[in-house]
Specification:
Elements (H helix, E strand, L loop, with lengths): L2 H11 L7 H6 L1 E9 L4 E4 L3 H11 L4 E10 L2 E11 L4 E3 L2 E3 L5 E13 L2 E9 L1 H7 L6 H10 L1
Parallel strand pairs: 1-8
Antiparallel strand pairs: 1-2, 3-4, 4-7, 5-6, 7-8
Length: 151
Amino acid sequence: MSNEEVVREAYRLAEGNVLDGHGFRALFTEDGTFNDVPNSLTLRGDEIPLGLTGFAGVFPDVHRELLEVHALGDVVAVELRIQGTHLGAFPTPLGDIRPTGNRIDVPTADLWYLRDGRIERFNCYNAANVLLAQIGATPDFTSAIEAAAKA
C-alpha cells in the first residue's frame, strides 16, 4: 500500500459504522503515537484505539469528510471535517456534558508521518473550540475575567 492508501484505510477503520480499533492500531509502528494536539493528549502503542472508541462513544455516527489529501513522501497531509451527532456523554474535568443530539461539523487538519509503510506519528489538529460550541459548551469568560482580576 502507498502512504496515502494507509492513511485512507486508517480513516475508513475510524468511521462510526466500521470502528475497528485493532485494525487501526495495526497500521501504526510498534512505538507509534496518536496526538490530539488541541487537547494535549498523546496515545501510545495499544492506547491508540482509545482515541477512536472514546470519540465514537460520544459521537457514534462519526464520519470524517476528507476534503484534501496530499502525500509528500513519508508525510500525508489531510484537510477534513469531523462530523457526527452528540449522542453520548462528553467527559470534562467537572463532569459529563449530557447528550444534546446536536450535529457537529469540525474543521480539522491531520498530519500523518509514516515509516516503512506504517504510521509512526499521527497529529490531529481539530478545532476543539468549534466542537464545544456546537454541543453548547461555550467558554465561561466571566469566571476567567473574575479569576484574572483576583490574581
